[in-house]
Design a protein that fits this description.
heterodimer; A: 931 residues; mainly alpha; two-stranded antiparallel ribbon; 4 strands; elongated; B: 121 residues; Helix Hairpins
Chain lengths: 931, 121
């Protein structure tokens, strides 16, 4: 027994139609129905317990460390909605089998439909606010897919977009509201929230939370002023309208209000917002519905009106009204779904939904007509049909309120007026379509639909009748248990009888019927009156608003993002300046208490030289070669700085990287202009100088403040454990290959990726080679100088030996994979410089890409190796051995990891430089494209 | 010494940013390189300055802070890879666009300036 399966079965069912579509339409429809039916059967198995007043709960740990559970709960309200969702869902599956034409993709349709069903089921049985919201959003998305199912139609796309925008925006508001509620209560568990109604209502942010949640509910349930999306959603296939836009999705908002009724309702704020919104929606929907010529348009506005009625009931803050609301949810779902299906049949069999053309269909489809007429009468609230019962309860409740103080008597009047319009449009639906003369140039001759297309309508209409005649037997228990879940304490006494004697609600009903008939009879005058108003098309307004938002954001983007890198950088720097400088203004003293090192002459000279070279780089930056030479001086002094301040590893690295960088820039300079033209205006120069100067001041100040602050570091741990835990005395290297080995692994991966990216950029580059230098002298074709060739050739083994030595000793004294790799690269590059590419090619057969891949692989494999010994990733191992002749030596797995680093560095550096150097030769890299 | 060190970092930052704000790719790359020197020195400074600190265990009890060193070491190598990437991108941009301006096209007023420059020379 598992509540999870109630959701899971339809979810799996989403995939079924995609596989069974090929076996024919009936097989597809049948297979689609199996899993939801199974789910429905599960629900029915639980029904007994629920009727006994239990709520069934189940929760499964999902991400326990974050306190996230999948949790479900089935109580009376959930049960009612599950029956509606799954029951009507199955009828719609059957109906759609006959509704969809051969051209429509049935599998896709059913997949969307069942996805939607899953989402709805999820909403109603979620026991966690966030989980509920996730399913809520899923209904918005799946309904978007369903409305835009006929995506070749413009209005379908626009309607879908509108529905998604409105309900999606409402969904975001709902999320905010739910987060607030969760924050107030301290838990997202629905049970906990429902138990803390007083806490929530008395909290200071209750109004905000309430309004946000109601925004979610009103957008979903098409309440005024968000009602406009629903009529446009009617461009969906009719089974979708019957399912989503009458029975289920628009009821999700109602469900939300009912679900949170115990915690949010009961205050004046709730009363004012909910009941007034409901009343407005009720009247507006009923009035507009009368003037719609489109069958589905009429039904859509009628739906809006009925949703308004339910909202109004929920807003009255009375237990009896809540019962009436729940009752009307059931009744509306049955008669409206059947009416939509009937409208779909009429559309399907006659080719039109326009009531000005559809006339006198009684003669052509008497059977369907009978069903539709019964359903329409139920919508009108005629006795012996279910619509009558809930409408009576509604009238009775409007008499028991004091909404508008001493003006409260207006409410029953308005309710009767709304009901009269409801009668009028129901009459129009019946009279205009089935009687009223002959059809006017319909595309097809109407006929009865296939037998099984009528079955869903028959079932629903039968329910309307059964509930209407024997309300207590048919829905009494269900209504009772569902209402209990809404009002949470004992249900008030109410009587589900057809006849209550002569009372005011009965007279209101009679007045509504007489009034409705009168309105309909005099409809020509009303239509004429209505034609004086310009009908504001919500679509145009909506599209206009969307367009103006798009325009506004485009304008903003154009101002902020005009495509100039210089501008972006200066804006970024200005922002950094403000953020960096502001805190400094509060700092009264920038020197800390740490004792400073006295100056010495050598350091001062070095600093002087570095500053001069940096400034010279800037001054002569337009003469690029010169600037490069000054740059290299800066880099060399930086490496001396590292050496001076006790960081030999850094000094070695900086030195070798410096060489490689300068070679790279020299090579690149060959392909770029040798000089830069003067193009910055003096004002631009001074602006840039100002910005960069100020930033330099800020950074320098921060640096000084940091240098003079006493050090508190976590490095003591590394110093203490380097020898005992990592087996090396060079702490920097042990940090790299052991303590922070995972970082290093990431870093060499980045290095490899950068090198491969560069390779790809080089390989597809069009050569832009100057034939002469900037002074117009042609390139010399001198052979490689012999002295250099000889010396470098003899130096190669030596250099390689040094790099091996640096590599091997790295764990204990300065050195290691990074430095050794750079030294090896420099040695190889030297050969390229001395001998040229042609000489190298037959002598060095190394595929640098494999080197990179191999390096990363070795490093990763070393890390994974520790799994064999049941240790976490990248645990290291080391031990000391003794061999005769050689003596004591150490073996460490970190050495293998460092080998990976070494290989990656060599591969990356060589891949970049060698390919850049080869660019002008016949050996240049090329990528063969397949296309 | 600290003041001089900080001053150098400030100067390198200023020079680096000034060059980064120029309009040609190669100059921007040089600026970035200067900037990466400044950044590396800055990061290194978070371990404070120490003369004659021991680099390896067992030589002395006074060690330089190894953690910033390890971070800067990898930063230098990654910095090289990024410089290489940007400079190759600059080459590619020139090859594909025909000029070496950072925006891929010469802004309108500067072409005028170039023209007048040519006329004068």
């Amino acid at each position: 027994m598992n509540l999870l399966w109630v959701v899971l079965l339809p979810l799996i069912g989403t995939l079924v139609p995609l596989f069974t579509e090929r076996f024919g339409r009936s097989v597809c429809a049948f297979s689609v129905a199996i899993l939801p039916a199974w789910s429905l059967a599960l629900v029915l198995m639980y029904a007994g317990d629920v009727f006994d007043g239990q709520a069934i709960r189940q929760s499964i740990e999902w991400i326990p460390t974050m306190g996230l559970d999948l949790s479900f709960r089935l109580d009376g309200l959930s049960l009612l909605f599950l029956l509606l969702i799954l029951g009507i869902g199955l009828l719609v599956v059957l109906y759609a089998r006959y509704y969809l034409s051969e051209k429509d993709s049935m599998g896709r349709f059913y997949a969307y439909l069942i996805l939607f069903m899953t989402a709805m089921v999820g909403i109603v049985i979620s026991n966690n606010l966030i989980q509920l919201w996730m399913f809520w959003e899923l209904t918005s998305i799946s309904s978007f897919l369903l409305i835009s199912f006929w995506s070749h139609k413009s209005e379908a796309r626009k309607g879908a977009r509108m529905a998604l925008t409105v309900t999606g925006a409402g969904g975001l508001a709902l999320l905010a509201g739910l987060l607030l509620i969760g924050n107030i209560v301290g838990s997202y568990d629905l049970d906990t929230v429902l138990a803390n109604g007083d806490l929530i209502r008395s909290h200071s942010i209750y109004p905000v939370a309430l309004i946000l949640v109601l925004l979610g509910a009103f957008t979903k349930s098409a309440q005024f002023p968000f009602h406009f999306w629903l009529p446009h959603a009617m461009s969906a296939p009719t089974p979708v309208s019957a399912y989503l836009h009458s029975a289920t999705m628009v009821k999700a908002g109602i469900f939300l209000m009912a679900r949170f009724y115990p915690v949010l309702a009961g205050t004046d704020l709730w009363f004012m917002i909910v009941s007034l919104t409901g009343l407005t929606t009720l009247l507006l929907g009923a009035y507009i519905a009368l003037f719609k010529h489109d069958l589905k348009g009429l039904l859509a506005y009628s739906t809006i009106s009925h949703l308004g009625l339910i909202t109004l009931l929920l807003g009255l803050n009375s237990d009896l009204a809540a019962v009436a609301a729940v009752f009307h949810i059931i009744n509306h779902a049955t008669f409206k779904a059947s009416l939509f299906m009937a409208a779909g049949i009429i559309d399907h069999e006659s080719g039109s939904r326009d009531m000005r053309k559809l006339n006198g269909l009684w003669k052509y489809m008497p059977y369907t007509a009978t069903l539709a007429i019964v359903a329409a009468l139920s919508m009108a609230g005629v006795p012996l049909l279910n619509g009558f019962l809930s409408k009576e309860m509604f009238f009775a409740e409007t008499l028991n309120q004091s909404m508008l103080g001493s003006l409260s008597w207006i409410v029953p009047l308005l309710a009767t007026l709304g009901a009269a319009f409801s009668v009028a449009y129901s009459l129009r639906f019946i009279h205009d379509v089935f009687f009223n003369g002959e059809p006017i140039d319909l595309p097809k001759t109407p006929k009865e639909p296939p037998r099984y297309m009528k079955v869903p309508v028959e079932i629903l209409v039968a329910l309307c009748l059964l509930v209407g005649v024997f309300p207590a037997y048919v829905v009494g228990d269900l209504l009772n248990v569902a209402s209990l879940a809404v009002i949470t304490h004992d249900a008030p006494t109410y009587s589900l009888a057809v006849w209550h004697g002569f009372n005011i609600p009965l007279f209101m009903s009679l007045a509504a019927m007489v009034g409705g008939a009168t309105i309909y009879y005099n409809r020509r005058h009303l239509f004429q009156f209505q034609s004086h108003f310009d009908e504001a098309d919500a679509k145009h307004i909506f599209e206009g608003v969307v367009q103006s938002i798009v325009n506004a954001s485009q304008r903003m983007i154009k101002t902020l993002e005009n495509g100039s890198l210089q501008r972006y950088i200066s804006l970024l720097l200005l922002f950094t300046l403000v953020m960096g400088a502001l805190p400094l203004l509060d700092l009264t003293q920038n020197a800390g208490s740490r004792p400073q090192i006295p100056l010495d002459g050598v350091a001062l000279t070095g600093a002087f030289l570095m500053i001069l070279s940096a400034i010279a780089t800037v001054i002569w930056h337009r003469r690029r070669f010169l600037a490069l030479i000054f740059l290299s001086v800066v880099g060399l002094i930086v490496s001396l700085v590292f050496a001076q301040f006790s960081a030999p590893d850094l000094a070695l690295t900086q030195l070798s990287v410096e060489i490689v960088t300068i070679i790279l820039l020299l090579l690149a300079l060959f392909f770029l202009p040798q000089t830069t033209q003067k193009e910055s205006s003096p004002s631009r120069l001074s602006r840039d100088l100002l910005i960069s100067g100020l930033i330099g001041c800020v950074i320098g100040t921060i640096c000084f403040a940091m240098l003079t602050t006493p050090l508190s570091t976590i490095s003591d741990f590394f110093l203490a454990n380097s020898k005992t835990g990592g087996g090396g005395t060079n702490v920097v290297n042990v940090i790299l290959v052991d303590f922070r080995g995972f970082d290093t692994l990431g870093e060499i991966t980045v290095l490899g990726i950068a090198a491969l990216g560069i390779f790809k950029l080089i390989a597809k580059m069009r050569i832009y080679m100057p034939i002469s230098d900037d002074k117009g002298r042609a390139w010399s074709n001198d052979p490689h100088p012999m002295m250099l060739e000889m010396v470098s050739q003899s130096l190669l083994p030596l250099a390689l030996l040094v790099s091996v030595y640096i590599f091997l000793r790295g764990h204990n004294v300065p050195g290691g994979g990074f430095i050794a790799g750079l030294i090896t690269s420099v040695a190889i590059i030297q050969q390229y410089i001395a001998h040229g590419v042609k000489w190298i090619k037959p002598r060095i057969h190394i595929d640098y890409q494999w080197l990179i891949a191999g390096g990363i692989l070795i490093a990763t494999a070393t890390g994974l190796g520790s799994w064999i010994f049941d240790k976490p990733f990248l645990s290291t191992w080391f031990d000391h051995f003794h061999l005769p002749w050689i003596g004591e030596f150490e073996l460490a797995s970190a050495m293998l990891f460092d080998l990976g680093v070494y290989l990656t560095v060599v591969g990356a550096v060589m891949l970049i430089l060698a390919n850049l150097g080869k660019l002008t030769t016949s050996e240049r890299a090329e990528i063969k494209e397949n296309d | 010494m600290e003041a001089v060190y900080a001053f150098c970092v400030g100067i390198l930052t200023t020079c680096g940013f000034f060059l980064v704000l120029r309009g040609r790719t190669f100059t921007v790359v040089i600026g970035l390189t200067l900037l990466s020197y400044a950044v590396n020195l800055f990061l290194f400074a978070s371990g404070r300055l120490k003369l004659d600190g021991a680099a390896v265990l067992g030589q002395s009890t006074d060690y330089g802070d190894p953690l910033p060193q390890a971070l800067v070491l990898t930063a230098i190598v990654i910095g090289f890879a990024m410089t290489a990437f940007v400079v190759i991108l600059a080459m590619r941009s020139r090859a594909d666009q025909g000029n070496d301006h950072v925006d891929g096209q010469i802004p309108a007023q500067s072409t005028k300036a170039t023209a007048s420059h040519k006329r004068n020379s």
